[in-house]
Amino acid sequence: MVSPSTLFAPAATEFIDRHPQQPSPEQVELRDGLLDQPAHVDPKFLYDALGSALFTAITQLPEYYPTRCEAEIFQRHGAAIARHVGPVQAMIDLGAGDCVKAERLFASLRPRHYVPIDISADYLQSAVRRLRLSYPELQITALGQDYTHALALPADIPAAQRLFFYPGSSIGNLSPEDALAMLRRIRGQCEGGGLLVGVDRVKPAQVLEPAYDDALHLTAAFNLNLLRHVNRLLDADFDVADWRHVARFDSARSRIEMHLEALRAVRVAWPGGQREFGAGERIHTENSYKFTPQSFAALLGSAGYRDVAHWSDSRGWFSVFSARA
């Protein structure tokens, strides 16, 4: 099990291994995705240190409404949400990033133990240093891990007192099947506890698409930075100048899709493999599914949750759901 102490280990003793190294699971996942038809890269790879910082900047853009809508809901309905959630021993923040969203709820939810989880461990470590100065009485266990496939939590947190916090409509990055599996996995970790989750709602394309293709091109930089992250992880040779950012709303699937599109024919290589991309060929980097309140409530029901409540912003663009496991 995971140690209750913070999982940022000190530097290990140097060891030089002359044996050939096997590819890591991350490298295998990236290689398989790039060789697939069509090519794809999981959106978790958007979040290295620079990607996380760029996303924080994106949330300040006028086009990017989800963060403001979610903040409005917590401001207008915070007392009702806290009553529905009930007592919180441990607040487990999935995709915590800079931890600001959870921090804004500390006063109303009053967790005794805060467990932020993010794939970008360096970015998370910086955020946790700030929190420790501001909340010296709060127990903090920061986990640098990919929570999309497995959740390894400290053993000393009773399941019945766990609140999973999954804000920003990150659940929308998963396919409906994967979202259902994730919700079930969370429920299995907090029997008797609960889930507080942000959900983006169906809207016209003229509202949705600018949120993912803004006038300052910050989202484009965020998406293109993925190629640099892939280069580091896979020792590949993507040239960012060969690609452009594309975002569109697929109304049939009720999702925004983000792609990287080759501006010209290119060949990309990495140790033991390569792929040629034709001009106009795309790498699928992210989906963001949009829900109606009814469709997401049904998804929670299918995952086994009960006592479901939700609150919306004044325009009905975003919802926050609270559910018991």
TrEMBL record:
Lineage, broadest ranks: Bacteria, Pseudomonadati, Pseudomonadota, Betaproteobacteria, Burkholderiales
UniProt source species: Achromobacter pulmonis
Keyword ATP-binding: no
Pfam families on file: Methyltransf_33
Domain Histidine-specific methyltransferase SAM-dependent: 29-324
NCBIfam families the UniProt entry points to: egtD_ergothio
Name under which the protein is recorded: L-histidine N(Alpha)-methyltransferase
One GO-annotated biological process of the protein: methylation
Transferase in keyword set: yes
Alphabetical keyword list: Methyltransferase, Transferase
Molecular-function annotations in GO: methyltransferase activity
